[in-house]
Amino acid sequence: MAAATNSIKCIGTVSVIGVHSTDRVILRLSSMNDVVQICSLSQTMGTAFPVTVEQCKAAYSTFLTAYSLNTTMTVWFDNVQTGTSCSTFSGWEVATARWAALTK
After folding, report:
1. What pLDDT does 104 receive?
2. Which of 77, 74, 76 is nearest to 104 (CA)?
3. Backbone CA torsion sign across 20, 89, 15, 98
4. Most buried of the four, 58, 73, 87, 95, by CB within 10 Å?
5. Cα(104)–Cα(93) distance, rounded to whole angstroms?
6. CA end-to-end span of the chain, whole Å?
7. CA distances from residue 61 to 3, 18, 25, 66, 99 in whole angstroms, order as listed
8. Is the pLDDT of residue 1 over 60?
């Protein structure tokens, strides 16, 4: 298995935010080619900058706010197995969100 890619920075508005029945939070920014799994509402995800359940809930709230306000976000992704940039993610792959910030 190839090493995961870390520190992928994407900037854009929230196009998709949702919760899958697997407790995974799903996200797609306008600058991304597909949706990714950014964290879990029931367990810590990732080994590089692990995202806890508490962090996941806070990030989800931040993404909902950004979606409601149609404001730009900056997100840093880690633990990505396939994608190497915002435009090369494999649909539904894990890409944990270690940093989620509303930006102007």
Report:
1. 78
2. 74
3. positive
4. 95
5. 28
6. 38
7. 30, 11, 11, 9, 13
8. no
The β-bridge relationship of strands 24-29 and 36-40 is: antiparallel
Structure tokens at 29: 């920014």
3-state SS, residue 95: coil
How many Å separate Cα 60 from the centre of its chain? 9
In the sheet that holds 72-78, the strands lie side by side as: 93-94, 36-40, 24-29, 8-19, 72-78, 96-103
Convert the pLDDT of each residue in 29-48 to its tens digit: 999 999 999 999 999 999 99
* pLDDT range class, residue 11, cuts 50, 70, 90: very high
CA angle, residues 95, 46, 31, in degrees to nearest 5: 15
**Bridge partners (DSSP) listed for residue 102:** 73
Q: Which of 20, 8, 12, 10 has its CA nearest to residue 92? A: 20
